Amino acid sequence: MARDKIKINLDKLKTYPISKRICKVRHEDFAKPPSKAATFSDFYSSLPNILAGVDFKAVVEAIVSARNKKKPVIFMMGAHVIKCGLNPVIIELMKKSVITAVSLNGAGAIHDFEIALIGRTSEDVPDALEDGSFGMAKETALYINGALEEAVEKDIGAGRAIGEVINDEKLSFRNKSILYNAMKEDVLATVHIAIGTDIIHQHPSFDAGAAGQASIKDFYNLIEEVAALGDGGVVLNIGSSVVLPEVFLKAINVARNLGYKVKDFTACNFDMIHHYRPYQNVVTRPVTSGGKGYNIIGQHEILLPLLAQAIIEKI
């Protein structure tokens, strides 16, 4: 059976005045034109109040508010933050009592230590891999693996233990180290080790038991900080695509299981590309029952100095 043919008559379309339409973009929210003599505050105010411009400012306000309320501000960072030369930025935020805790993966701790030791880090992996010399610098392994054993003896976490070794050995560039400065400023520093992922695990001096014990101590230390996030704290994941988002998810779960009301806080992921795990485990899932999550994409070496300067301008 043939159906009747539909005939479209555009003259019968319903329209309405544009003045009645809801618009997501307004000229009032546009960026302001650049000015040669502008201050940083002028520049910051000139950013468009649209998309990431709004989110970036919201994260700044949340961090400043958390500092004023003496709530945790946790910076979880992958190794690339250090390799981008951002240690001085992080250290200044610790000195200004903005950051209350820093969490690194194993690679982050290694790069931070090498900066303290010789002022340089990040070897040429492809070339070193050809002859098997990748990761075989002896001092890095001896010092850090020794620090992990000391962590067990002293019943402290890996982050604190590495900071103490940097201090005790009076390493030449220690003032550039996040872990050393965290120790000096009494800021919690935790290191979360995935065994088999770091260059020091290749060396005979590596004790997996000591690494595991020092790392789990830091996991417990982080849980205590996460438990206080509720009602105004901030957690940022910067450049860790797997380890730290997973650690954070378990930390917040344990805190809630123990009865702590970890909600109504701000979670933000800063990274160069969109990753599934940080988005789910930091930005989305933990704030489902209350709070705000932001995902801001961009180069660390540009975004983090902008973030830090914006915070310092407001405190």
What is the gist of this entry?
The chain is of the alpha/beta class and 315 residues long. It has helices spanning 40-46, 52-68, 79-83, 87-95, 106-118, 125-131, 138-154, 158-168, 178-184, 208-226, 243-257, 276-284, 300-314; strands at 73-77, 101-105, 188-192, 234-238, 265-271, 291-297.
Structural description of this entry:
The protein is of the alpha/beta class. The protein has one domain (68-314): Deoxyhypusine synthase (Deoxyhypusine Synthase, 3-Layer(aba) Sandwich), CATH 3.40.910.10. 48% of the residues lie in helices and 11% in strands. The protein contains 13 helices and six strands. The protein has helices at 40-46, 52-68, 79-83, 87-95, 106-118, 125-131, 138-154, 158-168, 178-184, 208-226, 243-257, 276-284, 300-314; strands at 73-77, 101-105, 188-192, 234-238, 265-271, 291-297. The chain has a six-stranded parallel beta sheet, with helices on both faces. Strand 4, helix 11 (243-257) and strand 5 (265-271) form a beta-alpha-beta unit. The protein starts with 39 loop residues before the first helix and ends with a helix.
Write the layout of secondary structure elements.
Layout: H1 40-46, H2 52-68, E1 73-77, H3 79-83, H4 87-95, E2 101-105, H5 106-118, H6 125-131, H7 138-154, H8 158-168, H9 178-184, E3 188-192, H10 208-226, E4 234-238, H11 243-257, E5 265-271, H12 276-284, E6 291-297, H13 300-314
Helix pairs in contact: 2-13, 5-8, 7-8, 7-10, 8-9, 10-11, 11-12
